[in-house]
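> call design_seq(struct)
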């Protein structure tokens, strides 16, 4: 009789299925919420990355449509880049933009003709050899414009109970474009 008195409530507990959905939800919900937040953050990161690509390409495209530029014109390219980053204005505040005019000599060696960054400085010395130029663009006696754009991005890595941290990434893109008009794009005051 005593064993029956202990086993009966235990048996009823094992048979009773009420509340099992609540328990399953309590186990699965934190994982699903973390997965949702992580997917959302990754989507934002991919969107910012696409805007980095679009901004670098647009800036290079606009510069190569000119025959001559100056620092004032190049400074407007920062505003063009920031306009592309809307609504991600936090990222746009820290844009790093460098533009370089590259002359490829008769031997196929790319050398800096002029360079500019958003601080109106020359990040590369005139006459230095440029690395990273695609082989198919190293045509003798031609001109290229290189656009380098980078922006920091904070990515939230969220896992409840384990980790909630922010990781800082630098998203960057480099484009090489040929001049569209004339034989080069000269910069009057970029030396």
């Amino acid at each position: 009789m005593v064993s029956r008195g202990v086993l009966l409530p235990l048996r009823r507990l094992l048979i009773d299925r009420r509340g099992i959905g609540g328990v399953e939800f309590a186990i699965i919900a934190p994982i699903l919420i973390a997965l949702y937040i992580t997917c959302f953050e990754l989507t934002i990161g991919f969107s910012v990355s696409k805007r980095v690509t679009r901004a670098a390409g647009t800036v290079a495209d606009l510069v190569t449509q000119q025959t001559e530029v100056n620092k004032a014109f190049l400074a407007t390219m920062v505003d063009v880049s920031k306009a592309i980053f809307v609504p991600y204005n936090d990222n746009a505040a820290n844009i790093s933009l460098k533009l370089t005019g590259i002359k490829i000599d008769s031997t196929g060696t790319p050398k800096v003709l002029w360079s500019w960054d958003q601080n109106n400085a020359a990040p590369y010395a005139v006459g230095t050899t440029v690395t990273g130029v695609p082989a198919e663009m190293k045509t003798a006696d031609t001109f290229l414009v290189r656009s380098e754009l980078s922006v920091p991005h904070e990515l939230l890595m969220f896992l409840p109970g384990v980790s909630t941290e922010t990781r800082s990434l630098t998203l960057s893109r480099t484009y090489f474009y040929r001049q569209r008009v004339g034989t080069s794009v000269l910069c009057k005051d970029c030396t």
